[in-house]
Task: structure prediction
Amino acid sequence: MDLNFKNGEELFQFLLLGVLVFFTIILLIVVLNIFMTLKAILNEKAGIKTEPFTLNSLWNKLNSFRPMSEEKDILLDHDYDGIKELDNHLPPWWLGMFYGGIVFGIVYLLNYHVWQWSPLQTEEYEIAMAEAAEMKSQMQSTSVSSIDENNVELLTDASDIDTGNLIYTANCAVCHGAAGEGGVGPNLTDEYWLHGGSASDIYKTIKYGITEKGMISWEGTLKPTDMQQITSFIKTLAGTNPANAKAPQGEIYVEEEAPAADETEAEESTSEELATL
Result:
């Protein structure tokens, strides 16, 4: 039985089940006590002597104990140094568990290995792994759909760049050239940009388009991950200087540099000092 409770609710349910089992046993004992008491009263009226019901008498019955006055009837002939043996039978509860275990084993064998109604441990593991993979896929699809121009990040994995290249070739090369040299659309390899050269700006341009200049919106055609991969691929074209490159258009975009580690630590320490004032 797995007792690794994942949260307080599971622990509470387990404790509640234990309390219910305990009170159920108490209730059964009370009902049995009432029944045996009524039986003793009826037997007494009929002239039959009956011992009163007690937990000790119940225990003796469950174990098939014989009173000492009857031991002479079950005494065997075995005698060793004055020690004699009684022919006591195994307790009924023990025999019940023994035969119950045999029945359980047969049912278990038929269920798991003959009729295969229930999965074995290996199959349960494979089912659990498949369910986990499905949950992971759903989580990834949810996180993917949340990508937009405000949180898009450049991808550096080679497979993402290659996929972005394929999508670019199929959809963007007709206007911007196979190598990004420009055509109907602007050159994507120089440092000049009409609508911003950051990852956020490029993603936003792809997503919403620039309709007045003939750039269509790809939001309804490409998935967020597709546009992210195209953006990442376009950023790799910087400085490639392809042949027949179109003349620069727009303004120079200077890539923002991440703050140095020393500067970041200094800013954090300054903020902490101000917070303590």
